[in-house]
Amino acid sequence: ELYKAGNIKDALKYALKASDEAEGLVEPKIHLAKLQIKRGYLQDAINVLEKLYSDISIPRKVKEIVLYELIDAYIAASKFKKVNNLLIAARINYTENIHKYYKAQSKYYIAKKEYVFAINKLQRAINSNPIDDSNFYELAKLYIKFHKYQKSKNVLKRAMDLDPSNVNFRITFAQIVYEMENSDAAISYLYN
């Protein structure tokens, strides 16, 4: 709640306290690591997540969550060799959620500025899980980067069908309208 309200400092403080007090619980530690990544405390987040990932007592489903959070932390820290190793582990051990694997790969390729591969992985993520609006959004942003506005518009419309109230989707759509038409059309879109 504090994080959503923009009070990241207090959110981090309370997450740290919850993580310390709930020693046996994994969820507060994952939440703490997410906040640490947002604040730029990458090595602290990596330390928390590596410790959790190496814990053999964690259930398989929770370990998968930790794995993908650790991949995100490594990407944020530009530790691409470690990302690559975890992606291999994800591909071998967690094939039932292949969309998560493709999504993680797309983040990896975006971070490495290998956009053609990122587009391919996002398309695969969308095909394997067509209800994750974030994949459509990321793909639309990549199309914008290459000035493929019509493709971006089509993809973003699909994301907006899934979450019509998402402000970021609407702002990005207005950006596309601006590029394809003009500023008046974009402003008109935002006000409607």
Keywords:
globular, 0% strand, 11 helices, mainly alpha, 192 residues
Structural summary, described in words:
Helix 2 runs parallel beside helix 4, helix 5 packs antiparallel against helix 6 (98-111) and helix 8 packs antiparallel against helix 9. The longest helix is centred in the middle third of the chain and has 17 residues, at 60-76. The protein has helices at residues 8-21, 27-39, 42-54, 60-76, 80-93, 98-111, 115-128, 133-145, 149-162, 167-180, 183-191. Helices cover 78% and strands 0% of the residues.
User: By helix and strand content, what is the structural category?
Assistant: mainly alpha
Question: How many angstroms separate the termini?
Answer: 29 Å
Shape: globular
Percentage of residues assigned to helices: over 70%
> Major β-sheet, in short?
none
Number of separate helices: 11
The tally of beta strands, per DSSP, is: 0
Low-confidence stretches: none
